[in-house]
Amino acid sequence: FFLVGGYFSPVYRCLHIYSVLGDAETFENYYRKQRRKQARLVLQPQSNMHETVEDYRRYFSQIVGFFVVEDHILHATQGLITRAYTDELWNMALSKIIAVLRTHSVISYARFCLLFDLLFEIRDQYNETLLKKWAILFRDIFEADNYSPIPVSNEEEYKLVISKFPFQDPELDKHHFPKKLPMSQSVPQIYIQVKEFIYASLKFSESLHRSSTEIDDMLRKSTNLLLTRTLSSCLQNLIKKPHIGLTELVQIIINTTHLEQACKYLEDFITNITNISQETLHTARLYGLSTFKDARHAAEGEIYTKLNQKIDEFIQLADYDWTMIEPDGRASGYLMDLINFLRSTFQVFTHLPGKVAQTACMSACQHLSTSLMQMLLDSDLKQISMGAIQQFNLDVIQCELFASSEPVPGFHGETLQLAFIDLRQLLDLFMVWDWSTYLADYGQPGSKYLRVNPSTALALLEKMKDVNKMNHLFAQFRKNDRDKQKLIETVVRQLRGLANCIAQHP
């Protein structure tokens, strides 16, 4: 019988029938005998094979296909063939292949050179196969990681970790056990797998009988592909996974920092294998630095995005009574919960590089400020009372207190509080009702309300005007209310004039 197109059902059926009849050994002997005959046919080259590289390619493809089938049968059945049988078959094939190559190399040296080109092509395909295999290994490692610092209880555990990964921290060495290493478990595992990949790539390169310099170059190029394409892709996909939260992203940034630092040890590892110094002219360098920097930047961007998303979730819980007469006297519950969340989150950020933590903190405060401003100016919000403004002011005060508490170190003076400056000046203008100062000083560099745009002030004042109109229906005979309404209308006209002027002369 013949195995065509990988169709194995006839083999399975025959094996099952013979097994049921208690005569499986007969079928096993028959199968092996037939496959040996087929192997000899596959190994027999065409007489003119030396004429084109395509003939060599077809010849090797047939051999590979034959042994792929045998490998599948070996793993898919029990006892039909054995590892010893396939090894015997391979040794027979190997001696035949060597004889064929020697014969045809004598016929044409030029074609033999082309054959080496084919072997290099096969090497590239082999590397592609390795890259696919290691992509799966990397994904499995990332999936299994708990993204927490590695705990070590004693000296033995510590030495076990650093035997797998080149880690040095004199400050940490001063601490007593138990202690935690900054990276998570995936870091030493990834490092080990990169070295295993280098070994696997070396195994094929050595069989090409090239010079040490060429092998060194091959190893570095294939390792660069592993880092810049395979590992980089796995990291980028990991960072985008929905279940990866802020804590995990922080750990990923720490992990990539340590992997980046370990690249020089991978350079040394290849150098020790090939005995080719890194200072040798034209020696390729590993591009791991860019891989891990790109991953780190992606993780940082994801941190900023997730922080803003979390802020939005809290903002959606806001439930202001926009027509309240008097404020509650304390900040809103949703706002205090949000600030507590930010405070605890930024404590985790202490392990991040300083600028990353500062940027995340500033980004969060700016997003919070913008969200609060948008809430005030929402077109669906038609009326706002002074009591609501005062309540809103209590919440902004808490934001400012949070910013002034230096949630992450490194900010100078009131830098972080400036994120809320637009809100502060707008609220002060309305609470003090300081329109004469605003209108008189508008456009001056030293204006007390420099950050208040006339259009913004107008939009908010229009909402307050509507509330006052409603109240005016019930208090139209009170002189104070009538005067206030007239003042609002006067200020509205002046603000419209300023806004129109700005629109015409931006």
Automatic annotation (TrEMBL):
<protein>
    <submittedName>
        <fullName>Exocyst complex component 6</fullName>
    </submittedName>
</protein>
<keyword id="KW-0268">Exocytosis</keyword>
<keyword id="KW-0813">Transport</keyword>
<dbReference type="GO" id="GO:0000145">
    <property type="term" value="C:exocyst"/>
</dbReference>
<dbReference type="InterPro" id="IPR007225">
    <property type="entry name" value="EXOC6/Sec15"/>
</dbReference>
<dbReference type="GO" id="GO:0090522">
    <property type="term" value="P:vesicle tethering involved in exocytosis"/>
</dbReference>
<dbReference type="Pfam" id="PF04091">
    <property type="entry name" value="Sec15_C"/>
</dbReference>
<dbReference type="InterPro" id="IPR042044">
    <property type="entry name" value="EXOC6PINT-1/Sec15/Tip20_C_dom2"/>
</dbReference>
<feature type="domain" description="Exocyst complex subunit EXOC6/Sec15 C-terminal">
    <location>
        <begin position="115"/>
        <end position="463"/>
    </location>
</feature>
<dbReference type="GO" id="GO:0006886">
    <property type="term" value="P:intracellular protein transport"/>
</dbReference>
<dbReference type="GO" id="GO:0005886">
    <property type="term" value="C:plasma membrane"/>
</dbReference>
<comment type="similarity">
    <text>Belongs to the SEC15 family.</text>
</comment>
<dbReference type="InterPro" id="IPR042045">
    <property type="entry name" value="EXOC6/Sec15_C_dom1"/>
</dbReference>
<dbReference type="InterPro" id="IPR046361">
    <property type="entry name" value="EXOC6/Sec15_C"/>
</dbReference>
<dbReference type="GO" id="GO:0006893">
    <property type="term" value="P:Golgi to plasma membrane transport"/>
</dbReference>
